[in-house]
Amino acid sequence: MKMPCSLLRGYLLWVKTMLDKLAGIAERFEAIDIEIAAAAEDHVKVAGLARERSDLEPIVTAYRNYLSLVEQLEEANALRGSDDQEMRDLADAEIEQLKPNMKSLEASLKDMLLPRDPRDNRNVIVEIRAGTGGDEAGLFAADLFRMYSRYADRMHWKSKILSQNDTGIGGFKEIVFELRGKGAYSRLKYESGVHRVQRVPQTESQGRIHTSTATVAVLAEADEIEINIPDRDIKMDAYRSAGAGGQSVQKNSTAVRLTHLPTGIVVQCQDERSQLQNRMRALSILRARLYDIAIQEKQAAEDADRRAQVGSGKRSEKIRTYNFPQSRVTDHRIELSSHNLPAVLDGELDMFIDELATREEAERLRANTQ
What we know:
By secondary structure, the protein is of the alpha+beta class. Helix content is 48%, strand content 20%. The protein has helices spanning 5-38, 43-79, 85-113, 135-155, 184-188, 275-302, 341-345, 350-369; strands at 124-130, 158-166, 172-180, 193-199, 210-220, 234-239, 255-260, 265-269, 318-323, 328-331, 336-338. The chain has an eight-stranded mixed beta sheet with strand order 2-3-1-5-4-9-10-11. Strand 10 (328-331) and strand 11 form a beta hairpin.
């Protein structure tokens, strides 16, 4: 069955537009190598260019494979004009084999060219804070920290605690940690928001179910090129760090508190051995927070309603409930429940993350065709 002329014209126009975009990306990819060689002494700039190159490489590889298939198809079509029947049969067989591969590559390239979150391949800084519920909220914050730590283990990501404020009974008023691994932000970006727990606290003698909350913020790591913070915009205070309950007080003032004067954001770090290391960690967290603010503002201006399908990710939004009596975890954005709460708390989050990613992908495709 032949394709109608109008559809064929539309298809050819789409292919030409796609190939023009891909040719531009390939040119940029090749130019990056030249820029890296020219900026060999500027390590910060080289790091930024290397990240850009890494992001473009899969697209350029697929594009080159597509061009190779086009060349093979043209050669096979040329052989169909041969006087040799056997050659014509071989050409027909090759064309039948090449067409599905081309179709598959076209679909992949179309997907690669859709607008994506520029932070998807970044490492992340995760901040968990106890909300309403007193000590029980702090214990729940510790549960969430263990959940994400175990998920990171499953994904073979590296983790490091940057800052913590213990409650003294095994919970956290606040804990900030880093997860390093390819695609960390693309998997965990859906976790930002209010998490709610319903259970009977150990201290509850009447067996009553209490509801507590904790907030999670997932921040993409940013570098100095993207977020440059002038020294004049930072106020630094040094103080003596202490362990849980005021124990292990250090004699030297190694802990650091940074205040970003334009925004009032305050970041504290005390877990490293030296003041310089704590300052570098605090700067990393501050940079990630400012990058998050900048991206949120940009997205709000560009696509205010696109992300509504899977939740805005705002810190005030209740995204998930962990109900212990019913061993149930419910994600309210997609109305999806798991009845294996222990497994979820052990890091089995893919059920929720995969569905959220699928919903967002569908919404991106819908927005791109409007």
